[in-house]
C-alpha cells in the first residue's frame, strides 16, 4: 500500500529527547517500510527514517532557537501540500489531532486519525459531530469515555521495538525513577513524597516545557532542597535502558486522564515494575500484580513500592513482549488500513 504518515512538527521523528507521539510514529513508519509498504513520512527535516521523508520545516519547532514560531501556520502549510497529493496515497494516517478535518473532508474515507491526547476538553465534541466521517483510532479504551459515540474504528495500544529498551544484566535497583514531562498533572511532587517516605533516592529525568516553568520553580524546586532527589533533565533513547533498568520501580503518580503513558511500557521493556495511580489508561496498561501495581492513594503507593521490588523482572519483560512489542501495534494498523481500503467507494469516471 501507499501510506502517508503525517507527524506533528513539534519534535523530530524519532524525537531527539522528549516526544511520545513522534516516537510511536517512527516505530510504525519503520515497521511498515520493513513490511514492504511504500511509506511517505511528512515530518520536520531533522527526522531520520527509511521511508520517503517530505519536510516543510528544516527543524522541529520545540528545539528551533528562533524566538517567534507559529505552530498552526507550520502545520497548515504542510497539510495543504499533502491535500494536493492525496491521490498519491491509499491511506493518509494523521497524528496531529483535528487540524486536517476541514481540509480533507472530501477524502475522509481514506484517512486514519490516531488521537494521542486527552479527549475531555471543551469544544472537542462539536468538532467530532461536525466532521463525523473521519475514522478515529483511540490509544486506550479510557480515552474514548468523554465521547463514546464518536466514529471510533479501533483501540490500538502503543508498542515499541523490543530492542529500543532492554533490561541490564545486573540491575542495581537502588533508586526510584520518574521519567516524562515535569508538569502538574504528572505529579512529580507525589513521586518525591513517596521516595521520602520510603527513604530511597529518586532520580527525575524530565522535560520542563515553557508552560511548566512556573510550576517547576514554585512547587518542585523547593522540594528538591535537602532531599535525596537528583534532577537529571531530559534524556534520549540511548540513556533509557540504564536509567529505567536500574531503578527499583518507575513512579507514575499522575493526576489526569492519561490517554496511554508510553513511559510505562518503556519501563516494562527494561524489566522494571511500575507503580501508577488509577487514572486514565493506567489499568489497561499495567497488569496489576504482574508488571506493577495500580494504586489509588499515597499509602497504597508507598506499600506498593516495597511489594514490587520483589517482582520477577524477567516476567515483567515477558509481559512487555506479549502485549506491547511494536509488531502487535503495526499488525493492527495494517489490518485497519486494508479494511478501510476495501471499504473505499468506487469513483465513476465522468
From TrEMBL:
Residues 175-304 form the Glycosyl transferase family domain. Residues 18-131 form the Glycosyltransferase subfamily 4-like N-terminal domain. InterPro entries: Glyco_trans_1, Glyco_trans_4-like_N, Glycosyltransferase_grp1. It comes from the Bacteria. Signal peptide: none annotated. Gene3D superfamilies: Glycogen Phosphorylase B. This is Glycosyltransferase involved in cell wall biosynthesis. The lineage of its organism: Bacteria, Pseudomonadati, Pseudomonadota, Gammaproteobacteria, Lysobacterales.
